[in-house]
From TrEMBL:
UniProt KW Zinc keyword: no
SUPFAM superfamilies: Trimeric LpxA-like enzymes (SSF51161)
Tree of life domain: Bacteria
InterPro entries: Hexapep, Hexapep_transf_CS, Hexapeptide_acetyltransf, Trimer_LpxA-like_sf
Protein name as it appears in the record: Acetyltransferase
GO molecular function terms noted in the UniProt entry: transferase activity
Key words of the record: Repeat, Transferase
Amino acid sequence: MPAIGSIYPKKENIFSSKKSLKSLPVLIVRLMKGFLFRKKTEQCGEFLRVAGKVKVSARKNSKLILGDNVLLYHNVGFYLDTDHAVISIGDRTYINRRTEIMCKDNVTIGSDCAISWDVTIMDTDYHSIEGNSDTASVTIGNKVWIGCKATILKGVTIGDGAVIAAGALVTRDVPPNSVVAGVPAKVVKSNIHWL
């Protein structure tokens, strides 16, 4: 996965190289798709880029809130399954192909996050077991990297700067600046800083 700063166009130097000029048509198309996608959001920051079809299944009063410079790739899905559901995504976060976010209450994703392909984030079990709540908010901090095919379950808080390994099943809170891996996910390294 590229360093987080490398996927965003620099406003002042967009024409500084031949590579930038070659990628300009792609950037323009993504910005145009982002402009059209804004209608599906409650609130949307500047420079939303959409790189393909994005699914939004939302109830009447639910809210999808996107920050500045968010990038959504092909077949990302947002499922807001109650009237009060809120999905909020911070500035400069990107979400890769086929990732699905399912929400009945609240899913908050911070700024500068890198979410890989085929990730599942859900704040609900979609069913109840007697004595247990079927819904609990999910909070993902700033600058979190989530590897491909990871699953984040209800009630989880992921600290700033954490890394979730590919294929991890996150059922408990993740401390800041740590790496978690496995099923269920456990801390395998602490005090890390990723680029």
